[in-house]
Amino acid sequence: MMMMFEPDARLRRPPNENITKVEELVREDRQTTIRQLVHDASVSSGTIETILHQHLGLRRVCSKLVPHLLSLEQKNRPIQFCLSMLLKYSKPDSRRHSEVITGDETWVYFYDMPPKQQSSKWIFEDEVPKQFPNDSWRSASECSQFSSPREDFLNL
Questions:
Q1: How far is Cα 36 from Cα 31, in angstroms, rounded to an integer?
Q2: DSSP-derived pairing of the beta strands 59-62 and 140-147
Q3: CA distance 33 to 122
Q4: What is the pLDDT of residues 64-107, one digit of tens each?
Q5: DSSP assignments along 92-147, one per residue
Q6: Which of 13, 101, 132, 155 is the most exposed place for a label (fewest CB within 10 A)?
Q7: Quick one: CATH architecture of 10-64+119-129?
Q8: What is the signed CA dihedral for 10, 14, 17, 22, rounded to 10 degrees?
């Protein structure tokens, strides 16, 4: 005697109420973890991962430090200036290079960057990850350094 089993249509497919619950939890807190979702939704981690990736189309992205959002023109301006200076002072008889003052600046930030896991967020398929500077990165100090081959410049 052979027994026939009807395939269960719900196998490997989480109920709609679980999908809705997980979506609400993620929309409330984009930085929530799978462990926290398992606790809050009372379902297994495998089910949570299936809901997040297959049903909701979510992916996890990490924020990154973008200290300055420069346009292409702003990025090219220092390069063009340096090239013009090289052309101007590259002549063998030019002694003006001893009058060139160079400078450099360093930004020192007064905070500890959060670990990668803490700064990651869930984003939906139709969203683009933001790359704006974080407000906490704005508390900074600028240090400038100048140098010149001429000693009399340093005694001003």
A1: 10
A2: unpaired
A3: 9
A4: 655 566 788 888 888 898 888 888 777 766 676 667 677 766 66
A5: TT--GGGG--EEEEEEEESSPPPPHHHHEEEE-TT-----PPPGGGG-EEEEEEEE
A6: 155
A7: Orthogonal Bundle (1.10)
A8: -170
Question: In degrees rounded to 5, what are phi and psi of residue 41?
Answer: -95, -10
Residue 12 to residue 18: CA distance in whole angstroms: 13
From the list 121, 112, 105, the residue with the least C-alpha distance to 139 is 112
Closest to 17 in 3D by CA, of 47, 57, 45: 47
Structure tokens at 109: 């930030």
Per-residue pLDDT of 36-71, as tens digits, reads 999 999 999 999 999 999 999 988 887 665 556 678
* 27 token code pair: 């929309």
